[in-house]
Fold these 2 entries.
Entry 1:
Amino acid sequence: MTMSTGNLSRLDPEAVAKAVTEFINSAIMARSRPVQPDDDLELAGLDSMALLKVLLFIEAQYGFWMPDEDLVAENIRTPRAFATYICRRSA
Amino acid sequence: MRTPRLRRLPLRGADLVLVAMQALWKHAGVSNNTLMVVQCDRPLDPERIRRSLDRFLDVCPWPAARLRRPFPWGKLHWAARSRAALIGPAVRHQRLRAPEALQAELEAELNAAINPRREPPLRLAILDYTPETAGPQSVLVVTWFHPLMDPRGGQNLLAHLAHLDEVDGRAPWGGTPPAFVDDPDPRPLRERGRLGRRSQRYMRTLTPVPPVSPGTGLTSPGRARFRQASFVGDDRGVDGVRSTREICWRLALVGRTMAELWRQRGLPDVPFLVPVSVDVRPKGEPGPTFGNVLAFHFARFRPSETADVAGLTRALRRQMTDALRDGQIDANAAAMEFLKYRPLSVMLRDLPGTATRETFSFNCADLMDFPVALEKLFGRRVVNAYHAPSVLPRPGIGVFFNRCGIKNNLVVSWIEGAATEGEVTRIVETIREGMGWQTAR
């Protein structure tokens, strides 16, 4: 999936949550253990390295790097939390 | 059950690195053992464990295999004879006279080096003792030759044994045993070769000078020792850092304690080189049991940079991000697969300093959560569990984290001569303080 950064203001939170979830399931999770948009990612087994992979995905797809100060539980706990952050940041 | 007369399992990637590192010390009788210590609330029945192990060998021979290499050009591999000819690992049962004897027994396990060419690559011990404040308990100690499997693999093995005990007589794993070893990398040889060459180039640029370590200059290493302490306390966000749970934060904190050691000893301010193991199993399921399913990232920072832990954490996170972005961690995994074509003596040639047996400045790893599925084991409740790997004389010291239930375990493993008891006490206390933990009761 590719997305122009020019379209960021029109991001749909549901679509972003779906994209983040799909990325996590294809690149990080075992095929038999997919996560859902509201699943706690730490409980699902994501470690520090896996989190960085998600950040790199966001950078590649949405054109920005999540700064250290935004790496708080509220923004990274679930795929939907990531999506909310991405949409807020892009608005 | 009919099985082939001889089965072979090649050692791969990180397994070979671990064998090659020990080979640097082949005349010093250095142990390559690693321990998993599981404390249970009541005494364990050794027979149940022996039965499970015996059933496990029906489906998977590797706990009873031997290390082989057709001299001198063949691949290092585990070789197992037919099921009928397999002799399982020992399960030793011992009653300790006093709880204080436990630590000495555990360190004896760590130092009684397994010779996988002549004996099974793992063994189990059940140590019974009676703490002052509770009734009789058992500690289950799984000791293995580290290249056989990584800590996660050790936990998987225990989970398989526990499952075989639970199903007692019924078909285990719903009739279909899981894959106990990882599949080979499916990518074409050409692509893996390109990644391997890229990793080689990268590794040659890691540090301008060979690292130094607390073991530098240690010519006659002493025994392997370890100290374990349990703490309670939640992870917390610190100065914009995601959490004290993050490996970069922990590595920065451990780096600060090491820098203190450097200052006290007048060691030079050359960059630390620290391997950060990356478990490459997909998340959410146990994955393979045998083989070290790992890739490595190499953290570099100067002792003088450790004064600002939060700042160093950010720098280490950037380093790790760059390594991921550039595909270096994946390339490292691919490169290690080619080690099987090299003699042991040249496997580590791409690491700086191995000519003088300087490998890394120190070891540090977070072995993550002990699986919830292992809350109960052979009919007993697991009270705590941790891993204690032996470290090589150089670096001579390693700090390892893991969590079991609400307990945060900290293990400092060292070689006598590379660090003192007093220094280890100081390291444990500094890390406890930095993590904001309290001693567990």
Entry 2:
Amino acid sequence: MTVPTTPDASAGLPIGGPPAHVDHDQPGAARAAARGFWRFVRSSPAAFTGTTIVLAFVVLAALADVLIATDPLQVFGRDLLVAPNSEHWFGTDGNGMDVFARTVHAIRIDLLISVSAVGLSIVVGVALGLIAGYRGGWFEMILLRVMDVLQAFPALILALAVVAAAQESITAVIAVIAFLDTPVFIRMTRGQVLSLREAMYVEAARSTGNKPWRIMWRHIMPNTLPPLIIQTAVRLAWSVMIVSSLAFVGVGIQVPTPEWGAMIRHGSAYVTSGQWWPSVFPGLALMLLVLGFNLLADAIQDHLDPRKD
Amino acid sequence: MGKGLGRYLAYRILLLFPLLFGVSVLTFLLVRLGDSSPAVMVAGPTATEAQIRDIEADMGLDRSVPVQYWTWLTDALRGDLGTSWMSNRPVTEELWEKLPITLELIGFGILGAILFGVLVGVASAVRQRGVVDQVLRIITLAGVSIPLFWGALLMITLFFTVLGWAPAPLGRVDRGMAMPPHLTGMLVLDSVLSGYLATAVSALAHLALPVLTITLITGATIAKQARAAMVETLGSPAVRYARACGMSERGVVWLAFRNAVPDLIGYFGITFSLALGGAAITELIFSWGGLGQLGLEAITNADFAVVQGFILVMGVLTALIYLVADLLVAAIDPRVKLQ
């Protein structure tokens, strides 16, 4: 069956639009993907900065044990709340733990939770959005009503109530954030499908006898990817914020686990007495990572938008 | 619009009931999903298994969840949202008392965020690609990336700990201030109305930091949206036509701004409903003693009745924000008809 489909290369391409020519061999597709990525990184200062920040955080998270000799849970007995110095770069916190080691190690848990949550919500959200958009009917109606209810109250407060009930559990935090992220992907995918469903090339695919699931997966889904990639970066930024907000209020992840929100909560007790470092440094790291994702989202949008100013 | 408006309002208020029903069912289930129980908290750490079971029976927690929900719902329809085990007071009374305290904070915060966000966004869009735009965009991006709670801590560090300009982040007014009689529950308003000027000044000083935090951080999101909306309208055919006819630059910006306003108000609704959660955490940091602090403390202490009532009030507030936004758009934009 030879129907004009989107080339495989673009489905596996992370960022940067379709390749200049169609590569059917795997190494060629990988080369095209790498070229597209490189073109994106050089497209704007925002793209370069965002990519650098996110990559730096990923590398730091992966190599935290190798790069930093200090154990994030080690207690330096008498050195409580020591100001930043050559031994403790970011000082020590109220438990006498090294703030630098903890700030870097915290990248792992924050990235782990947000990436798994967003990943989960993409899988569920895109699947439900495809079905709702392509099939419509009662399924679509119920789905839309449920999402209306979800939209009716502040996500953060719902997340707090649920995670508090589940007590200290990373799984619960991931599940709640995925649950809150999913409607975004459902709405977006459904909207895309509604406009693509009547497209000429989909009509052609249908008339040559393709099964509905094949049309959804091979013909429609690849064309919903660009907005999906932008939304992924936006939701990653949002999820990192929610993870730490939960921990800051005191539900979900707790001290001594190195996590930014929990560290800021613990450090906030010393802010009014002048010991700013236990709360400022983890917050700075949190802000940088969120900034990185936000920059990426903006840059990808500019890069993919043909009408860019 | 007179008669149509009345019918539209009735429709929107009717729509609120199934929505709140859904929200209450969801909250009820999710809160009871976990294994934290208020009975354990009430009984204390030394309680025996039997004592905990007695308290659970007392609170009605030993019955099945649908039965519990039915009891709650029938009581709620009569205006009784249960009793808080933390304060031993009726939930409705507590919510009613704390609501104006929070509304005062959020009101000033929303006002500040809109002013700041729209000014920055419009200035940025008018000088598109220029130095002013680049600087404002960097500031905006930083603001969007800072979580509200950390922003609040930074504010306290800078303005209280280092500079000593702001009062201590402990409540709404200096200790020992004469309190005005209770009129609206909003401290600044009550103080001014009853002539307690010193109290009003102190209350305003205490409002400054939390309001500034909400203004800058929520305002950054609005600035980003305002810039995008203005860039769009500044490039629209209508504006190009006005330019071609020789309209002054000031007139052109005003025209573009007026065309961007309906979109902007739509964004305000989304932004402020999202900011309610952040505002609750801000209350916690400044020991504000409003609805947000009450709700968050109830959440961490498994005070189910208060959590349920708190989320219900938040649902109503969110719906109201969306309703006001929709009404404003309909009033301003002749292309939009209420239905």
